[in-house]
Amino acid sequence: MTDTSYDTDTEAEIDAEPDHDGGVSIANPAIGDDAIDRVGTLLEDGTLADGPVVRTFEEEFAAYCDTDRAVATSNGTTALHAALEALGVEDGDAVVTSPFSFVASANAIRLAGGKPVFADVDPETYALDPGAVEAVLQEREDVVGILPVHLYGLPAEMPTLCDLADDHDLFVLEDACQAHGAEIEGDRVGSFGDAACFSFYPTKNMTTGEGGAITTDRDDVADRIEQYVNHGRGETGTGGYDHVSLGHNYRLTSPAAAIGRHQLERLPEFNDARRENAAYYDEHLAELPVETPTEPAGYRHVYHQYTIRADDRDALAATLEDRGIDTAVYYETPIHRQPAYEGVSTAAPRFPEAERAAETVLSLPVHPALSAGDRRTVVEAIHDHYT
Ligand SMILES: Cc1ncc(COP(=O)(O)O)c(C=O)c1O
Question: Which intervals of the chain form a coiled coil (predicted)?
Answer without folding.
Answer: none
